[in-house]
Amino acid sequence: MIPYGNNSFSLRLKILVLLLFTMTFTTMGCFNIGPHAMKNEWLKYNNVISNIEDQQNLLNLVKLRYNDSPKMLAVTNINSQLLLGSEDSGMSYSFSEGATPLGNRFSFFLFPKYEDKPTITYQPLQGEKFVKNILEQISLDVLMLLNNSGWSVERIFRLCIQDINGIRNAPGASGPTPDYAPEYKDFLTVAELMRTLQRQNFINLNYELIDVESTLVLSFAEEALELPETLKLIEMLRLTPNKTDYPLVINVMDHNPNHVSIRTRSVMGILYLLSQSVEVPQEDVRKGKLTTTKYADGRPFYWSGLFSNLFQIKSSSEKPSDAFVRIKYRGSWFYIDDTDVESKRTYSLFSQIFAIQAGKIKVERPTLTLPIGR
Description:
It is built from nine helices and 16 strands. It has helices spanning 7-65, 128-135, 140-148, 153-160, 185-199, 228-237, 267-275, 282-286, 341-358; strands spanning 2-4, 73-84, 91-100, 103-112, 114-124, 161-164, 167-168, 203-210, 213-220, 245-250, 260-264, 314-316, 323-329, 332-337, 368-369, 372-373. The radius of gyration is 31 Å and the shape is globular.
């Protein structure tokens, strides 16, 4: 608040103060606006890109369930220009006046304005390299990396492996929805036994030198060899008892009781697998808009058993209010419930696997540029 005496002095003082603050703002203000604007805009773009990627992944899962073609876009560049001021003024201001016992006073406020004018570049994820990478089987190195990152061995195996020593984990689900019921129950038992032993630090995946080669092995602790869970697991996998180390081999057809043979999925296979969890509207099923899986006797097969405590995509005619991610497609809302912790964990694991596989493609990463204009 600044006191003043008469009207002419008041006017002159207003002009003087406004000029002083305009000069101060012009010479110093920009240096304060830049970092502040960058902080705000960075977080906004980060959240928006993350949400869009989640929605794109969900949309592609739903499309695959409907036998529609998925498409993928990646944000490769963000050029966000911050323009200081509007077309007619670099700032706005206001004055207020009033009488006090000490005389007339006035106060003023300056409001700097800036506009955000972004240019966002998208790049389709396509081409021979990308297709090969998402169709390429997940390697043993990736399984080791995920295991060492703290992921549950049960979740890794249920998502990434479709066969272990002849025990099937719904291999037909790695492609378009099959019309026959898949085998998976024995595999779930194997994965659960491994998780039980992992919780007690009785089982692990690690590299060992075998015949001068670094080999990934499934290792048991000595004290776990007589546990009922270990004995049951060894029996189901048809392995030689009382051994601590079993080398992992990939895509070996002939059974060897001293090895664990696995067949892994590809990223595309995992996408197809997760798409089978989509809860579709009964009206779409009745109209034959998608494949219906059945047992040999004609009874309908329900995929919920395969995805129990792993993953679920729900559907609704109304927009869900509490969703981790949601998308509208073919007139219905599809979403992952925000309270479904298991589905969110599995989605996060898939996102990491996708990033590893797609990361083999040299794609220019998003760049956020924030020039201050005007």
